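Same chain as my last thread, 125 residues:
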Amino acid sequence: MVDEEAAAARIREICLSLPEAVEKPFGGHTAPAYRVGDKLFAMTSEDGRSLTFKAGPGVQEALVASDPGRFFVPPYVGRNGWVGARLDVDQDWEEMAGLIEDSYRLIAPKRLVRLLGGRPPAPRT
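reply #2:
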């Protein structure tokens, strides 16, 4: 069994390490959600068992097809390319950090993406 509180703490650490990222719940929810500006790039479910993040074209399909035990198409935002990751199973946290950063790159203003250095931002969808 996976410690969901530890998973939430890892997500918080990853998200808040990104330039100007803040934690602010989504709508009337109380679960942690992470934004840059006022745009969401990652959000956890109310029960703490999943994380949802934005992905570039084809990424959702590839992740879900490669490991449906870890990844899924989330309700509501899945049709827009967002991906769900189960937090009640073992996760590859290096991969998750990369996926969260990719989501941030898709949402954040270019000036903030440039602060990350390295590779260029993912294409916007």
